[in-house]
Amino acid sequence: MSLINIGKLELETVVHGSPAAPTILLIQGLGTPLTRWPTAMIEQLTAAGFRVVAFDNRDTGLSTRMDVLGLPDVHRLMKIQSFALPFTGMPSMLSALPIPYTLADMAADAVGLLDALGISAAHIVGASLGGMIAQMVAIHYPERCLSLTSIMSSSGNPLLPPPSPAALHALFAPLPGASDEASLIEDSIWRQKVLMSPAYPTPDEELHAMFAAEYRREGFYPAGVIRQLSTLLTAGDRRLQLKAVRVPSMVLHGIDDPLINIACGRDTAAAIPGSGYRPIPGMGHDFPKALAGEFASAILSAASGASG
Fold first, then answer.
1. 210 DSSP 8-state letter
2. 52 - beta bridge partners?
3. Average pLDDT over residues 147-175
4. Which partner for 123 in 24, 46, 49, 101 could form a disulfide, CB atoms 3.0-4.6 Å apart?
């Protein structure tokens, strides 16, 4: 791993596979580090002849922390969003509120990383918030996007079903009173168990090991999640822009996703001309080891469409 400079930011980056191979760029979701991508998935992609690049988004992991931008009023954003849902004025109402950075800024980060690595174009893959970022790369930088894979993400359609009450609680419940490592790890585990795949549950000991490793790698940084959440809440409806995407695309989504409803995956696939769509029974909002092959297969399907 290494920090790659892209102007005013540094992005922690890891590269797998041959530098001569075509590149797959992996973009993670809300507050999620690059280490969360399944190792078996990456191994299958490199075995198929691809170079795989993963990175920590700004405000995540070991990449630049944007403390200089302050903290947005997320609760106010949510109240305005909830009030404005029935009205076409919602995007303008939300965009009038100050936020630290936009989805377009995060897409520019991804393209800046390609520039820094000397990669002219790549197969772009994103999960959750990362899927929205990946969509923006395909929309605004079509010459840099060979294919698009959007995993457990959304088109931004404001009329799609919201998260389940349990998922919303897991996302917004107060942090534990104690800030020691053990308390923070246990807090992360219960939140993750609400979101994880019901048919492919991750054992508690594996969850503990994962969150312990993340804590020791990057510490505890809720401010980054808050800033990224404001970006997500103000991202807007991308359906019209997605209709102009002309690269081979694949949408993969868990049927049992409690955070980003399966209807969001269907809507994303419907918005992208010719997109493939893979609903996965028993999958929630996580990366179970048992589905690593499904993730790799979806990415390779989109990539093969670009080279076929």
1. H
2. 16, 24
3. 94
4. 24
